[in-house]
Amino acid sequence: MADPVLQIRSLDAFYGDFQALFSLDLEVASDGVIAIIGANGAGKSTLMRSISGMLQNRPDSILYQGEPIGGLRADQVAGKGIALVPEGRQLFPSLSVEENLIIGGRMRRPGPWSLAAIYDLFPILQERRHQASTSLSGGQQQMVAIGRALMANPSLLMFDEISLGLAPVIIRQIYEVLPKIIATGMSAIIVEQDISKALEVSSHVYCLQEGRVSLSGQSDTITREQISEAYFGARSDHGLA
Hints:
Elements: E1 4-15, E2 18-29, E3 33-37, H1 44-52, E4 62-64, E5 67-68, H2 74-80, E6 82-85, H3 97-104, H4 115-121, H5 123-127, H6 138-150, E7 156-159, H7 168-182, E8 187-191, H8 195-201, E9 204-209, E10 212-218, H9 224-232
Parallel strand pairs: 3-8, 3-9, 6-7, 7-8
Antiparallel strand pairs: 1-2, 1-4, 4-5, 9-10
Helix pairs in contact: 3-6
């Protein structure tokens, strides 16, 4: 297995006096895709905020390419080569599709992703490049958010709730392009509510429960019974997507 591009060691995260993550350990191989699953409030978005620098932590609790980054600001983390597709997309409503994409490339990191490459990946965005970003459908806005992150030419791309609120046909389209994105040489973290999709696209899965890792394992060997127990905290008859 390739050396880890990201290592998280005993990560604690707080919002004021409230502790959201407890001694979290995980890693992402330099050619790997990991999935993060868990119920609402399990700490998934807090983990994304911690890695991306929106929530600062102990510096050595997050290592990126061997360098401690836990105490860096979000812009500093982005400059290192980590990009986030945030939950809810968070596009700039006053800007066009193309202007949103251009902002993503402000770091001017070298790599394969450019406006032309984004438009090749998502042709509908080229057709609508001059429209206000928030005038698009939810699925098209998600494509803009993904394209904006890719314009930074990251080495690690993180998707927070990649399919939340999207129609099945749009989810399918987004997952169809993921292999092409990963094939450019980056690693990825995917936070996903659809457990079947999470297992399908990842090499390793981590389940969070109440801010702790309740289960981790290879995606192709972990069982639904193990996931159900880790997801709900006890053996359960709840159906899993």
